[in-house]
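[User]
Protein folding is very new to me. Any chance you could explain this protein sequence and its structure tokens? I have pasted everything here:
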Amino acid sequence: MITLVLATTNQGKLAELRALLGDLAVQVIGMLEAVPAGFSVEETGVTFEENALLKARAVCLASGLTTIADDSGLEVKALGGRPGVRSRRFAHEHATDEENNAALLRELQEASDRTARFRCVLALVTPFEAEVITVEGACEGSILRAPRGSGGFGYDPLFLLPGPQGRAMAELTRAEKNAVSHRARAVLALRPPLMRLLTG
């Protein structure tokens, strides 16, 4: 079994990655368990890929352990792809999920086209190989006019999935979300190189 560090302090992301990788011979730990106190990474990238690589490289160097970094967010067509890399800080620098959701609804108040997608980029960096692996996954949907559901985190209460059931991401069980989410699809793409790492 190898230890993987997830370069995040977001407990929701950590729980999802642990569930998605639960069948592999890996122990997934959070960044705070692996790096010195006070350590942080400034997310200066302008794309999800740049930020994922920044975090993966920095945490791998600080911990000496194989690291997966996730950078993900919501892209809304009517807002030209915003909030994008600023999804966590959409309302302001230290915004809560509720503040970000409220800010999104204000910006889309007059929008008729509410098409959106969640995107996730994962970067895998190891301390013993020069190769850096990046993969991505996306989940298409649209933005509701009011929050629904109590599960998930972030923009999940506003994200309407396509299909006849018409459920918000926050109305799914954890298992249902892990079958369709952008993060689940990115992990699916990451599994082949991760398996090579485990067997090599």
